[in-house]
What we know:
The protein has 12 helices and 12 strands. By secondary structure, the protein is of the alpha/beta class. The chain is globular.
Amino acid sequence: MKILVLPGDGIGPEITEATLEVLNAVDRRFSLGLALESADIGFAGLESQGTTLPQAVLDRVPEVDGVVLGPVQHFDYPDKAAGGLNPSAELRTRFQLFANIRPCRSHPDLSILRHPMDLVIVRENTEGFYSDRNMYAGGGEFMPDEDTAFSIRKVTAAASRRVARTAFELARGRRKKVTAVHKANVVKLSDGLFLREVRKVAEEYPDVELEELIVDAAAALLVRRPHTFDVVVTTNMFGDILSDEASELSGSLGLGGSLNAGTDIGVAQAQHGSAPDIAGRGVANPTSLILSAAMLLDWRGHRDGNTALTEAAATIEAAVREKLSDPASRTKDIGGDLGTAGFTARVVEVIEHSTIASTERENG
Length: 364
């Protein structure tokens, strides 16, 4: 499996290095034949090639079997004309990575929840309220005068159908329930269209229950009754916000994995940002990117029928969960004493020596 690694900005290089150590550990254990190659993006790419997303990287993405993308600091990039592209948005739209898949599973003594959480949020990834990525040409925001700003939301039937189908397929392998989250009581046309297409797809999956919730209620019920959610499907911005909420409720935003998936291309990406304030200090929690890389292996393994990849992914997930359950093996952001390297070493040790890690996910 060929993986393109894009370390990114801020803490990106540190947590990417940690993730590569974990990938190398499962490669040794399962003989995966991983071929890892790195390329500069973000500020490193801007300095060396005059752009935060070099054309050589874009050319390489469809040639490899998966991508690991570190966090980027795109808010601080220069304008596009000066080379400041948002790598995350560009990859999602250019390669039609239409589903952003974010599992959230609570950690008993880290979560504030009264009930356990074990859900997956499937977020439409290419349009919606994200006006920087929903136009073929030009921007989705404009100002007719200095005191007035407009932003255009785009929702299409095709994008709604394909993300809904991803959600129902996931639910069919879990607890067979999909919750469609919307605001059709207010944004009646665009969310109405989204709901129409979700309902159509639901007809193809009679074995899966469909629930519909207004986003306000969904945000509240993630706190009150998280155990009743299985797979949540929603539009871009709602999914972004709700998945961050769910991850924080389950223990920390830094503990959730994330995969951007299209038909043929998958990009693993940490849920959190680049945290430039702690960059270079060796204290960043690498859990999110490690779990995202595991999701990439699992996605590719299922796509290719490669059980070694799926077993490796399950082993990573189990090893991370085992270390997070031990207060002495946690990083400082969640009450422990370890830094990036220390936590990574303990995860690698479990991968190398445990004989039961790979069955934990199956046994729940």
